[in-house]
Amino acid sequence: MENARSSVEGNTRVGEASVHWRKEGSGPAIVFLHGFPLSGHTWDKVLAHLRDRFSCYTPDLIGLGQSYSTAGDDYSSPGQARALQGMLSELGVASYALVGNDTGGWVAREIALLDRQRVSHLVLTNTEIPLHRPPWIPMYQVLAHVPGFGTVIRQLLRWRAFRRSSLVFGGCFHDLTRLDGEFHQLYVEPLVSSKERMDGVLEFLRKMRFARLDEFRKLHQQLAIPTLFIWGADDPTFPEPQAREMMTQFPQVAGFHSIANAKLFFYEEHPQEVARLIERFLQ
């Protein structure tokens, strides 16, 4: 029998895409999708509470972490879904629950539409809302088309004050000291030190189209699977009142849990509570 704490990782080729993934634990499968501009490692603290009972998969979205593609469409939300569905098929995952934060929640909904026979449950945490635009992201999408912008933003990210501002990560944590140390090493340093990693982030920005997101006002009605909402109550990026309104678009809502003193990446600050809610929902 596989060790419940075993961890494996690899890269799976799906068309023109190379999808980097990790798997921890054994049991029913859960696929965790991260937000912008992070990687699958952002879920590590949650996995620590679930890997004894579940097989936890944490792929990197195309353009983020170690996943990339030579096909521009793979960076779009439907393209991301096709690549990740292909990865899971290659790995032999027959049935799975989806957990998504930020843009990972958007991609999770794309996968749930595409792979309806295999997706058993959906958990959405602080993610995009149709007709709502998160602060600053539309501006960055425009700037991503400007030659040399990648070089400029790599220099700006060296400044601690800039990283802590609302322009970047200021609205992501209740405790801003979490932006230093491990978070900085895992997600900021690679962008500062690697032009290729920054190029992937910019392509991600260019290809994620909000016009597609707005279509989910109606597409949500097709997601006839149990859906749980877990929300950081103080998030300025995706405000809770608008999330509760979006919830009414889903046909099988299992609940809406609001976590106090929590913002966009609240699952890193409250991993045990998030893991408990996910496990209870799946059981």
Describe this entry's structure for a reader:
Strands 1, 2, 3, 4, 5, 6, 7, 8 and 9 form a nine-stranded mixed beta sheet that branches. The protein has helices spanning 44-47, 77-90, 103-114, 137-143, 149-156, 160-164, 182-193, 195-207, 210-214, 216-219, 240-247, 266-269, 271-282, and strands at residues 7-14, 17-24, 29-33, 55-57, 68-69, 96-102, 119-127, 227-232, 253-259. The protein has 283 residues and is of the alpha/beta class. The model has no long low-confidence stretch (mean pLDDT 97). Helix content is 38%, strand content 19%. The protein is globular and about 45 Å long. It has 13 helices and nine strands. The protein has a single domain, classed as Rossmann fold.
List the helices and strands and how they pair.
Blueprint: E1 7-14, E2 17-24, E3 29-33, H1 44-47, E4 55-57, E5 68-69, H2 77-90, E6 96-102, H3 103-114, E7 119-127, H4 137-143, H5 149-156, H6 160-164, H7 182-193, H8 195-207, H9 210-214, H10 216-219, E8 227-232, H11 240-247, E9 253-259, H12 266-269, H13 271-282
Parallel strand pairs: 3-4, 3-6, 6-7, 7-8, 8-9
Antiparallel strand pairs: 1-2, 2-4, 2-5
Helix content: 25-40%
Q: Count every beta strand, where a strand is a DSSP E run of 2 or more residues.
A: 9
Query: Judging by the overall fold, what is the CATH architecture?
Result: 3-Layer(aba) Sandwich
The 3D shape can be described as globular
Unreliably modeled segments: none
Profile the largest sheet.
9 strands, mixed
CATH class: Alpha Beta
Query: Which structural class do you get from the secondary structure elements?
Result: alpha/beta
Q: CATH superfamily, called what?
A: Alpha/Beta hydrolase fold, catalytic domain
Give the topology string: H per helix, E per strand. Answer: EEEHEEHEHEHHHHHHHEHEHH
- Specify Rg, calculated over alpha carbons: 17 Å
Mean pLDDT: 97
- What percent of residues are in strands? 15-25%
Number of helices: 13
Q: How many discrete domains? A: 1
CATH topology: Rossmann fold
Distance between the termini: 22 Å
